[in-house]
Specification:
By secondary structure, this protein is of the alpha+beta class. The protein contains three helices and nine strands. The chain has a single domain, classed as START domain (Alpha-D-Glucose-1,6-Bisphosphate, Chain A, domain 4, 2-Layer Sandwich). Strands 1, 2, 3, 4, 5, 6, 7, 8 and 9 form a nine-stranded antiparallel sheet that branches. It is globular and about 45 Å long.
Length: 153
Amino acid sequence: MRGAKTLHYGQNNINKMNIESKEVEIFASNEKVFGILSDCSNLSLNHIGDKIPNLQEWQASEKSCSFTVQGAGRIEIKIVEEVPFSKVVYVIGSSMTPQGVNANFNLQDKNISVVLSVAAELELPFFIAQMVKSKLKDFIDMLVDQIKIIAER
């Protein structure tokens, strides 16, 4: 995995990981894509519920959303930074990631389209990192795909 390194804190091995999504070209205005990203209520159970098995208890407001996934517990997503038309930063937290995952949604305006990508950073104990890294990559790839579908309607 690109960008992974192990930090040593006393007896605990903490794995620092950087995970990047695929880049997705969205044929919509930069303003529209940014508007979708900067309002969590645009993501709904209808958009991601069938992509995540056992997703329950979906709740969303403008700046946050949360849901429960069997085996992963309660997941909370909060917007913590917005740079108009270029970036939205989320913190994704669960019982498995107590420090949270910083997910930077980056927009590149191409005049007739927007290129969307996500760069996520997290620190986890090595054994947990090995269990969750592929699932997190799949999750952020699914999110960019769903944002493309929403924006191109």
